[in-house]
Specification:
The protein is mostly beta strands. 9% of the residues lie in helices and 44% in strands. It is built from 13 helices and 48 strands. Strand 42 and strand 43 form a beta hairpin. The two termini are 31 Å apart.
Length: 997
């Protein structure tokens, strides 16, 4: 089982943490890092298949910029989870991983993501990065998606990793919109290798344990090889409460002194620790006093027509606020924060949204992998692969129910409630009160996810005449069990109504009718385990996704041209994906009128119309594809043209839902001389919608929204006259009164089988300079444009986009249903093809090695300058462009820099993970922030140290420190908890041993 909350201060003797190590080959034309020069020398003679083409050739002949990370670089990193390594590379941004899935992650946060490690090339979406294993697709990591869980790929078996930028749909099919990550596994291991390691943070938490066994043997006179691998890893949870800097919630709030634009007064003030004074984790009590505005009426502090009841009586209704001290547990007067704005205050006794959350998800992984091959003869090799992986992970967030006067009902604490603190008993007696109100959070919301992955591959490769061929069939499946803690509303509210029985015991008021009921104490987390078991439920969602692939490819020499041999590759591929998602029956409950039944806390809204429900999702599709490639030598042996090659590729895909699509690639590879080489690639790629986007079942809930055709809103659009005219076209007069302004309306979410594939056009232009064997420099410019991107709009945005253009926009208007009087009945938020993405930048790879009398000195630099990154959710609105390049989360410049010294028995490396300065908010006006903040997030440099020592050929030791300087993330909103870009955990240590037999 996962060790979810362990705060023991055990020291792991000699444990020193992991390091991001040597970056291997940074470009397809650059040589590999010099510690692997022997491998490079061999590669230069052999013809191997590299990501980006199915035509056999060396990596130095490729037209697309490809980063290659070899096995020695992986070992030097200390990364047991391959996602931890890849997310350090500048080409990958904003992926999903244990440290990147916390409640500070914004829109990327999801309870169901716990345990996943997903790659995101160029930060344009995990579903737009294609992950391959041995050049073949891998079953997706979660139901309804196409993204692959990299944690199911054992790092000890990886021979090298290839990362290509730019669309590769013509080569590998849909999803390769922003690029490809290809894991090549070792297949000729002989002997037994054991790796044991442990790690811990400088705060004595976040312990990790990893052990792996890899065994391979040849048989039948070396005609065949079988390699087996078994690995186990465990990582402790780190809660927000263990890091003070992460626990605070930094926020810029409106400055009450601000008088308007250009007044020389900042529009906002900075809150160091925003707390919401509508409730607290321990509990706030609202107790009427002598000024109670409804004294003498039948109304009480909970049931009344008054404005919301918040701490410190902001509306002067006549009540006092008391709190439970979070340190002592004592009942006392409420202490307000400063700069209060009704509910949010800086400090004080309110609720910190982070305090029940997970900073770094725990995980427990078991992976078994076996692969083998057998040479039937010189022209045919059969191969087979099988894997099984299981991961358990968890993440906590706030609560499934909030007891305040905004998001949920206040709790009635009656005069016979046995859980009242004595001070409250005395006050209620003095004031002759029958009931007071308690504002507190309910049980913490927590997901514990279990995923099991299995995949089997059988195939062959060989040659006949002058042609090479490859064929395989593969089937993979992921079964997921997503368990979320929740409350049964019926049991919960029954258990909250507690009294004292004749024996002085706390019991439920209706215990006679419900003898199983256990009284629940909501104050200061003091509810008994028995009460928690009674009110709590575990919602179990069972998901699965299956993928079947069959493929055949043929490559070889077509004919001899004046400048060389024309090579080709052709192939066919069949793929079927099926996905099922079955939420717990309590989550599916819906009343006859289409409103969610609200049986559990997470499905219950502030009002009944805002209840929601989940429906099962089932869907499948098939894809039949045919593709071809040509490599045509155009010129050879001319002045300034040592050789010039043209590469052509095309693929036709017949998708059972979206229909037929064609993709293609054009590329030039120009070797000016032995020192300089340039490359140019243009690709037209597609991403087909995934099963969730296509087939998500209908779900209806309620939400607040703003109707642009309401009389007060018609002149507020970007062009008021357009909005007025378009509302009139809908039959809505300028004095129309919309009921949406006074309550919630129905919102429908569902899949959309009318979706079209996204379309991407990518361009790369590169120059490689290799003046001598020890130095290589590669510069590559890349540009990616994605149109018709699949996106989902909020209800208010849908309503606005319907009427804010020069004429009615049918795409959005069709998503709105109004009755005969113009009132909104329902807004559909299903996915549509409406968005555009664009990104461009330049990659710089420098690789240098120098021989010393006692060893080898190596230096690698891999940097990315992000020039442009934009997101336009509504492509029909030219003003709707979010420019993200240079903004926090997408810094203009990132680099991974490694220096290493290798001797016969020792290797020392120093890695710097550099994140350039960024703008906090690119849309900020000059007066938006206080003078003390310059709207910048300073540059960060994380230093990592690694040392390995080979005692002899059979035993080696390694240790490392990650984040040597214990650098903390910036104390700014949504940054202080870190993630995959900024480290929120602090200094980490690890140590391990390897045994070779």
């Amino acid at each position: 089982m996962i060790k979810y909350h362990s705060f023991n201060k055990t020291q792991l003797a000699g444990a020193i943490k992991k390091v991001l190590m040597f970056t291997a080959l940074s470009s397809i034309y650059t040589v590999t890092p010099s510690y692997a020069e022997e491998e490079l020398a061999q590669e230069q003679v052999e013809r191997i298949s590299v990501t980006g083409s199915r035509i056999q050739r060396s990596s130095a002949q490729m037209t697309t910029p490809t980063t290659v990370i070899d096995s020695e670089a992986i070992e030097m990193s200390g990364a047991k989870n391959i996602g931890d390594l890849l997310n350090k590379y500048p080409a990958l941004l904003d992926g999903i991983g244990g440290a990147g899935n916390n409640t500070n992650s914004g829109a990327g946060f999801s309870l169901n993501n716990a345990g996943l490690e997903l790659a995101n090339l160029r930060g344009l979406g995990t579903n737009r990065t294609l992950v391959l294993v041995n050049g073949r697709r891998h079953v997706p990591g979660a139901a309804g998606t196409s993204a692959v869980d990299m944690s199911m790929i054992p790092s000890a078996l990886v021979d090298h990793i290839e990362i290509i930028t730019g669309g590769a749909s013509a080569i590998y099919g849909a999803d390769a919109v922003t690029g490809v990550v290809n894991f090549i596994l070792k297949d000729d291991i002989e002997g037994l290798k054991v790796d044991i390691s442990a790690g811990i943070t400088a705060e004595s938490d976040g312990e990790t344990q990893d052990v792996s066994f890899t065994y391979g043997t040849n048989f039948d006179s070396n005609k065949g090889n079988v390699t087996g691998h078994l690995s186990y890893s465990n990582e402790e949870e780190i809660p927000f409460t263990s890091r003070d800097y992460a626990l605070n919630r930094y926020v810029f709030r409106a400055n009450p002194l601000n008088t308007g634009p250009d007044d020389g007064i900042a529009d906002t003030i900075f809150f160091n620790d925003v707390r919401y004074q509508a409730l607290s984790k321990e509990g706030l009590f609202y107790v009427p006093n002598e000024n109670w505005i409804l004294k003498g009426t039948d109304f009480d502090i909970i049931n009344n027509p008054l404005p919301p009841t918040f701490a410190d009586d902001p509306f002067g209704l006549g009540y006092d606020t008391y709190a439970i001290d979070r340190e002592t547990g004592q009942f006392r007067d409420f202490v307000a924060g400063i700069n209060c704005q009704v509910v949010p205050c800086d400090g004080g006794d309110g609720f910190r949204t982070q305090e029940t959350g997970t900073l770094n998800s725990p995980s427990e992984r078991l992976i078994f992998n076996i692969n083998g091959h057998y040479d039937v003869n010189n022209d045919l090799r059969l191969f087979a692969e099988a894997k099984y992986g299981k991961v358990e992970s968890a993440v906590s967030t706030q609560a499934s129910v909030f007891h305040d006067d905004n998001f949920g009902p206040l709790i009635s604490i009656t005069k016979d409630n046995p859980f009242r603190p004595q001070q409250l008993v005395d006050i209620m007696q003095q004031r002759e009160l029958d009931v007071v109100a308690l504002a507190v959070i309910g049980l913490t919301a927590r997901n514990e996810n279990i995923r099991e992955t299995s995949q089997f591959t059988l195939g062959g490769e060989g040659s006949f005449s002058d042609y090479d061929y490859n064929f395989y069939i593969q089937h993979g499946k992921v079964d997921s069990e997503l368990n979320s803690d929740d409350i049964s509303n019926e049991n919960y509210y029954r258990a909250l109504d507690a009294v004292t029985d004749a024996n002085g015991n706390a019991v439920c008021r209706d215990a006679a009718q419900n003898p199983d009921c256990v009284a629940y104490n909501p104050i200061d987390g003091l509810a008994s385990d028995e009460a928690k078991d009674y009110v709590g439920v575990i919602l179990q969602q069972r998901d699965s996704i299956e993928q079947t692939v069959a493929a055949f490819s043929l490559s070889g020499e077509l004919f001899e041209a004046p400048a060389g041999t024309v090579d080709f590759a052709v192939g066919v591929e069949y793929r079927k994906e099926t996905s099922n998602s079955n939420p717990d029956l309590l989550s599916q409950a819906v009343d006859a009128d289409g409103v969610g039944s609200g049986l559990v806390g997470s499905r219950t809204g502030p009002t009944r119309p805002e209840n929601s429900y989940l429906s099962p999702v089932t869907g499948s599709y098939t894809v039949k594809e045919i593709y071809g490639e040509l490599l045509v030598p155009l010129i050879e042996g001319q002045t300034a043209i040592e050789n010039l090659d043209l590469e052509l590729a095309a693929r036709y895909s017949d998708h059972s839902v979206t229909g037929g699509d064609s993709t293609y690639k054009l590329a030039l590879n120009w070797a000016i001389n032995s020192d300089f080489r340039t490359r140019y690639t243009y690709s037209h790629a597609v991403r087909a919608p995934n099963i969730q986007e296509l087939f998500a079942a209908e779900s209806i809930g309620g939400a607040s929204m703003t109707d642009p055709c309401h009389s007060d809103n018609q002149l507020l659009g970007p062009d008021g006259s357009n909005r007025v005219a378009n509302c009139a076209s809908l039959g809505l007069a300028p004095d129309f009164i919309s009921n949406a302004s006074f309550g919630t309306r129905s919102v429908e979410s569902k899949g959309n089988i009318e979706l079209n594939p996204e379309i991407a056009d990518t361009l790369t232009v590169g120059l490689v300079y290799t003046p001598f064997n020890e130095l290589s420099i590669a510069v590559d410019y890349w540009d990616i444009n994605i149109e018709d991107a699949i996106t989902t709009f909020e209800p208010t945005d849908i309503l606005n986009n319907c009427v804010d253009g020069q004429s009615l926009n049918s795409v959005f208007c069709d998503a709105v249903k109004r009755d005969s009087g113009g009132q909104i009945l329902l807004v559909s938020t299903q996915s549509i093809n409406a968005a555009n993405f664009a990104a461009s930048g330049t990659d710089l790879d420098i690789n240098y090695s120098h021989s010393l009398s006692f060893g080898q000195l190596n230096f690698t630099f891999k940097g990315t300058y992000l020039d442009e990154k934009t997101f336009q959710q509504n492509s029909a609105d030219p003003t709707d462009i979010d420019s993200q390049a240079g903004e926090v989360g997408s810094p203009h410049f990132r680099a991974l820099i490694t220096s290493a010294l290798k001797t016969d028995d020792m290797l020392v490396s120093w890695t710097v993970n550099y994140i350039g300065e960024s703008t906090f908010n690119k849309e900020a006006t000059p007066e938006l922030y206080p003078d003390t903040f310059n709207n910048k997030v300073k540059a960060y440099a994380y230093h990592n140290l690694n040392l390995s020592y080979s005692y002899d050929d059979a035993i080696s030791l390694y240790l490392g420190i990650d984040n040597v300087a214990d650098k903390k993330p910036a104390a700014l909103p949504d940054l202080n908890a870190g993630g995959l870009l900024y480290d929120g955990i602090g200094r980490k240590y690890y140590a391990g041993m390897q045994f070779d037999f």
